[in-house]
Input
Amino acid sequence: MSDFENLHGMIIFAKVVETLSYTEAAKALGLAKSSVSKEISALEVRLGARLLQRTTRRIQVTEVGMTYYHYCYRILHEVKSADLFIRQFHEEPTGSLRVVAPVTFGCQCIVPALNHFVASNIHVSVDLDLTDRPVNLEDDGFDIAIAITRELPEHRQYRPLMDIAWGLYAAPDYLKNIGTIASPDDLPRHDFILFRGPAHTISLPFRKEKQKKDIEVRSRFRANNSIALLNSAMAQTGIAYLPNYITQEAVARGDLVQILPEWEMDIYKSYVLVKSDNFISPRVRLFIEDLQKALK
Output
């Protein structure tokens, strides 16, 4: 007997249990009452067990029938969930999209994608929370969260966005005054603008082919915001250690120059975390697709 041979009978049997009526089950399923009766009888024969006790007045579910019904119910629930998923997959995005993202990355990279998404989907509203605090996606009520990390996220559902490479940047006029920097070994004598690390020194990583260096440098100015460090670098305060998405426009304008671009430094990865539901709504799915295209 094939496992799939009973599926049709299981659907009919479940409906009979729920209505306790062959007539009502037949109406709900769009079948003849005789077809329902024949299918139940055939199912019982295949199973070798009595599922229903039938009298002229009522239908009674046997003990084995009730246990079997619970299996049928779970299967039908999954079938309905699958149907709902397909219907909603094709629906127009509607409702509120709640997004949480790190402050600077959110302003620089997420907001432009959200602007485009809102303009293209008139029935969707957006609630954006920019914060650098840790977020619990399941408890805080967000649909998606943007995370930046070196390791893979611990969250069950996530999608990759973009790599974030860090580098050293300084204003051209500042570099003219301090002389040539030919290698990482030239760095300790200069002043640095740093986002993280101890107040006075930090070890900067450098990699090129098989070479690896960790250079201790002095931090003259620290801040917990990359835009503040960017502005300080453009004001010729020192050499800033920044992620590349922050500096792209300043480099394109000629306000900043990357130092030692041939050396690789820290590389982080950004991800979009999705609430761990069985179904991803159209608004969430389409925004993630737009975001991945924008940050590709």
Remarks:
- The two ends are 51 Å apart (CA to CA).
- Residues 63-89 form the longest helix (27 residues).
- The chain is about 40% helix and 25% strand.
- The first strand starts at residue 52 and ends at 54.
